[in-house]
Amino acid sequence: MSLLELKSVTKVFGGVVAMDKLSFSVNEGDIYGIIGPNGAGKTTAFNCITGIYKPEEGEIIWKGENIAGMHPCDIAGKGIVRTFQNIRLFGKMSVAENIISGRHQKSKQTWFQGLFSTPFYKKDEKENWLKVKDIMKLMGLSEYATIPTQSLAYGIQRRVEIGRALATEPELLILDEPAAGLNEKETFELMELIKRIKDSGITVLLIEHDMDMVMQLVNKITVINFGKKISEGDPEYIQSDPVVIEAYLGSEDDEEEEN
Ligand SMILES: Nc1ncnc2c1ncn2[C@@H]1O[C@H](COP(=O)(O)OP(=O)(O)OP(=O)(O)O)[C@@H](O)[C@H]1O
């Protein structure tokens, strides 16, 4: 059964149709890739799914419910969480503190319980830290627990960001170009971590420009260009689809002409 289904979703900015009747469907347990040339509409699709933008047309069905146009906090509360292209951590806070900041979105404690240190608060906060410990283990971050994130390598910061997203206990983790800015070794390590996240029962949807990574990691791909779906299938099919090859070669030619 599909977990997330976009049905003919359209998003327009002024005269630009950033998403044009886009449909695709993500099943539970997928590592699903969205690819396409620059400006194709990939990030706009993610922004519509996570409630940052309200689409003009179409439905975004999450577990049977249309969530198009809902508030981002409500969508996050339903189990859909994302990371952004640019890392957005609290630089002076430690790895563990950054991760627990994501946990507090999930936690049910109130300021009153915190102020008076009630038994519920103590129990809840202990559970939060235990969860952070598990996430740091999963993400290979335990040795950096107390270090401020701003002093860590970019590849580790990326892992912290994903760890913070995991702290909300998502069912769907959306990653916007997770390998951007990472070197080959960091990219390989990230791929292994994404596989581990999937094995822990979380469905993953990602945008990525690193084609080697996409082709090795995902089980299904939707290719978009000028906001429209131009192809869909498994990595083997996509790599040999002439329409996809043309879209990428075409965009390279355009870039060369511009330079
Ligand atoms: N907030 C916005 N206001 C106006 N136009 C926008 C906005 N966001 C995106 N667009 C336009 O929508 C189109 C799709 O942009 P989008 O960022 O979704 O593409 P993308 O596939 O994610 O590109 P990239 O790979 O370069 O990140 C582009 O023409 C872009 O200029």
From TrEMBL:
GO terms for cellular component: plasma membrane. SMART domains: AAA. Transmembrane segments: none annotated. One of its GO terms (biological process) is D-alanine transmembrane transport. GO terms for molecular function: ATP binding; ATP hydrolysis activity; L-isoleucine transmembrane transporter activity; L-phenylalanine transmembrane transporter activity; L-valine transmembrane transporter activity. Keywords: ATP-binding, Nucleotide-binding, Transport. InterPro entries: AAA+_ATPase, ABC_AA/LPS_Transport, ABC_transporter-like_ATP-bd, BCA_ABC_TP_C, P-loop_NTPase. CDD domains: ABC_Mj1267_LivG_branched. It holds the Pfam family ABC_tran. Gene3D superfamilies: P-loop containing nucleotide triphosphate hydrolases (3.40.50.300). Residues 4-251 form the ABC transporter domain. This is ABC transporter ATP-binding protein. It comes from Geovibrio thiophilus.
